[in-house]
Amino acid sequence: MKIGVPIEIKNNENRVGMTPSGVFELTKRNHEVFVQKNAGFGSGFFDKDYIEAGATILDTIEEVYAVAEMIVKVKEPIEQEYSLIREDQVVFTYFHFASSEALTRAMIDSKSVCIAYETVEDADGSLPLLIPMSEVAGRMSIQQGAKYLEKPIRGRGVLLGGVPGVPPGKVLVLGAGVVGVQAAKMAAGLGANVTILDINMKQLRHVCDIMPKNVVTEFSSEYNIRKHIKDADLIIGGVLIKGAKAPKLITRDMLKDMRPGTVIVDVAVDQGGCFETTKATTHQDPTYIIDDVVHYCVANMPGAVPYTSTVALTNVTLPYVIKLANEGWEDACANNASLAKGLNVVKGDVVYKEIAEAFDLEYTAS
């Protein structure tokens, strides 16, 4: 199979869809890999590394899309790429369709085969290709939140860990999934007082078992959210509904109950965000302020640490890339139930129910 790896052209996205190690694994199986010039530069991988692994370097993104039977990316195609995607071409990447009707309709019109990392699902309900980036984003949410609490950036001026004689900051984490657990772990390590809310009691029991004493759990309800936002310094939104839009857990009217300079970080922004006031931002311009509350809503947080993120992502995507290349997408999905759940849009049909429901589109069972 001919596999293309283009440069990510989303704002400040420095990750790349494949490492030289991944190229080597494919070329030794007699597949051809075409990598756009400097595609890996932002992640610390150079053209010579890809050439040594057996790749062919192409100068432009147009050349990569034109030659490839399968495109392996990191982030969803943006508008400049829509016209480059061909009928029957396989695109394997994060799509997050439920947050963008324009992207969804563009991929329907392209009649390509869209396999989304974020909906590949194992038998136990886990999302193996989303987990590593959720781990990165969860940890980064505290790192970024701590920075934007500083007064020069109009935060509350709170040091999360406190100092002797001064109490530590308070962190509220919405969701006890991968993002929430990693965020709580980082915040607790800094010495903050952490409250994590979720509706899954089994998961809350697990969190209680593994977290230190400065992390407490509570059942998530609107009442409890409204109670805790009043004195939280940093609020992390880490709620996920597979393939669907995130629920709006913090509404506009709740901002008035927060103290000026409170920082909210919406890690669910890729799925539309779990704050009503969320709008996607970039690493170039990451924050905005509404009602004196600092919003950090960067839609590709792991892109700020591209080496770590690229290696972590390709560790889990490569086995699926090999399977798709060896067997073709139809046989690979027929033979692997986890991969089959990654099918979102296939040759003009929406085959993932939550996406169809998000935009009132016709759903076709795959």
TrEMBL record:
Residue span(s) of domain Alanine dehydrogenase/pyridine nucleotide transhydrogenase N-terminal: 4-137
UniProt-recorded Gene Ontology molecular function terms: alanine dehydrogenase activity; nucleotide binding
Residues the record marks as active site: 96, 270
Highest taxon, organism lineage: Bacteria
E.C. no: 1.4.1.1
UniProt-listed SMART domains: AlaDh_PNT_C, AlaDh_PNT_N
A GO cellular component entry from the record: plasma membrane
UniProt-annotated binding residues for substrate: 15, 75
Keyword terms, alphabetized: NAD, Nucleotide-binding, Oxidoreductase
Name of this protein: Alanine dehydrogenase
UniProt source species: Aestuariibaculum sediminum
Lineage summary: Bacteria, Pseudomonadati, Bacteroidota, Flavobacteriia, Flavobacteriales
Encoding gene, per UniProt annotation: ald
